[in-house]
Amino acid sequence: MPGPARQGGTEIAAELARLVEIEHTGQPAYVGHLDGGDGDLHALLAGLGRPQDELAAVVVPMSTGPDPALDAAVRAAVAAAPIRAVAAEPLGPHPLIAEALHDRLADAGLARADRIRMMTMVTAATGVIVATPGDATAVRQAEVTSVLLASRLAAPVFTASLADEAGIRAAGEQLRAAGAASVALAPHVIGPEPETRLVPAAAAAVGAAYAAPLGPHPALARLAALRYVEALSMALAD
How far is the C-alpha of 121 from the C-alpha of 102, rounded, in Å? Predict the structure, then answer.
């Protein structure tokens, strides 16, 4: 997990690790944090004593998309580990992220699934803003997930940075210009990243309702397991 251990984040990560371990990989899953203290990733990797020629760990970043600082920190921790470890790709972008965003919107009463037609109909919201942490690069990366979400919702979806109120407002104006009578904000965060606190203000800036962060959604556990398998396969093929 990015950052130090925090109660909410630790609980979310622990539940995701449980789902990955029990329902997907069958391998022990641990939670490591990058900023030291309890659950420090460096200490965790050092404690996994294995022969140097045996792969001991695959580190999967718990992030919804590429993050240069986080990815570099994970790679540095892996390179400094006294055991053989590899770093996996971040969770997104991926259709499973769009699935989780869709479910959180449904949980908030902002979208529903029409199971008879096997498609999604928008109820309370006729347009969605995917609000992501990070800068313009992060927004471009999250746009892949937004396109996937739009296809699920059959409704327009725009992407903006949580830290860019002007960008959030512009996305809201674009949605309303496209005919959206009501707008919902879908936080592109697992929680509780520091940017999570910006969600209520971002939603208020465009008069939008908002969904909860993704949290320990089962789709994220499936995706973490997929990234684990991908990284493991590449490492064993070398």
Answer: 11
Sign of CA dihedral 210, 212, 218, 222: positive
Omega before 156 within 30 of 0, i.e. cis:
no
- The alpha-carbon radius of gyration of the chain (Å, integer) is 19
Q: What is the mean pLDDT of residues 208-215?
A: 96
Residue 4 has pLDDT above 50, yes or no: no
Calculate the CA 50 to chain-centre distance.
Answer: 31
Burial class (CB in 10 A: 0-12, 13-18, 19+), 108: middle
Number of residues in the chain: 238
Is the confidence at residue 115, as pLDDT, over 50?
A: no
Alpha helices for the chain (secondary structure H): 7-20, 41-46, 68-80, 95-107, 136-153, 165-177, 199-205, 218-237
SS3 113: strand
- pLDDT tens for 70-109 read 889 999 999 999 999 999 999 999 999 999 999 999 999 9
| Token output for 143 | 């746009």
Judging by DSSP bridges, how do beta strands 127-132 and 157-161 pair with one another? parallel
Report the C-alpha gap between 111 and 123 in whole angstroms: 5
State the amino acid at position 133 in one-letter form: P
Half-sphere exposure of 65 (CA within 13 A, CB side): 26
Cα 7 from Cα 11, distance rounded (Å): 6
Provide the percentage of residues in the chain whose pLDDT is more than 90. 68
pTM of the model: 0.89
